[in-house]
UniProtKB/TrEMBL annotation:
TRNA binds at residues 18, 78, 80, 126. Transmembrane segments: none annotated. GO terms for biological process: protein quality control for misfolded or incompletely synthesized proteins; rescue of stalled ribosome. The gene is pth. Keywords: Cytoplasm, Hydrolase, RNA-binding, tRNA-binding. It is found in: Cytoplasm. One of its GO terms (cellular component) is cytoplasm. This is Peptidyl-tRNA hydrolase. Monomer.
Length: 202
């Protein structure tokens, strides 16, 4: 870690066919963070990592100082091979795993809820599993955006590759906004503060 920078990665699949899928909610959150920071993603290969990236400052630090320095990244690879881009970007920007934040969809959390954690298992999420393998550790931060379990006997893999339902889309902008808030708070005031605010029902 050369300069206190963070790497914030939104997981998903590339291309317009996948853009509205539940599996791509992490990239939706990254788009919101970029919008807030007034930056635009540039698709390029950085350090051998295929990703759309943007450098920014997010949030406001305690005391009113400018927000955290971050590299925002959306891998250009498919979800199940997300690890290469995350590892490559971390090495290129000299960001240690404990300052990597992965924003992703989470089946085990109800739609509309957000949870944050450091480390732990991958819960069957292939994108997370590949990130863990590439980084060589589970000790990176996760912003887990709840998409809920599939209805009936629908396969989980099919469920996450479908767009949000009509009812969910009415709440989706709010959910993406809340996940962006949680990410900013994590970066500026730490995991405990972000968990306290976003894990508590109001």
């Amino acid at each position: 870690m050369a300069d206190g920078r963070w790497l914030v990665v939104g997981l998903g699949n590339p291309g317009p066919a996948y853009a509205g899928n539940r599996h791509n909610v992490g990239q939706m959150v990254l788009d919101e963070l970029a919008r807030r920071a007034g930056v635009t993603f540039s698709a390029r290969s950085v350090g051998g990592a295929r990703a759309a990236t943007a450098e920014a400052r997010l949030g406001v630090l305690p005391g009113g100082a400018p927000g955290a320095r971050v590299v925002l990244a959306k891998p250009s690879t498919y979800m199940n091979v997300s690890g290469g881009p995350v590892s490559g970007l971390g090495q290129y920007y000299r960001v240690e795993p404990d300052r990597v934040v992965v924003v992703h969809d989470e089946l085990d959390i109800p739609f509309g809820d957000i949870k944050l954690k450091l480390g732990g298992g991958e819960g069957g999420h292939n994108g997370l599993r590949d990130v863990t393998k590439a980084l060589g550790t589970r000790d990176y931060l996760r912003v887990r955006v709840g998409v809920g379990r599939p209805p009936g006997r629908m396969d989980a893999a099919d469920y996450v590759l479908k767009d949000f339902s009509g009812a969910e889309r009415k709440e989706l902008a709010w959910l993406v906004d809340a996940a962006a808030d949680a990410t900013e708070l994590l970066l500026t005031e730490g995991l405990e503060k972000a968990q306290l605010q976003h894990h508590t029902k109001t």
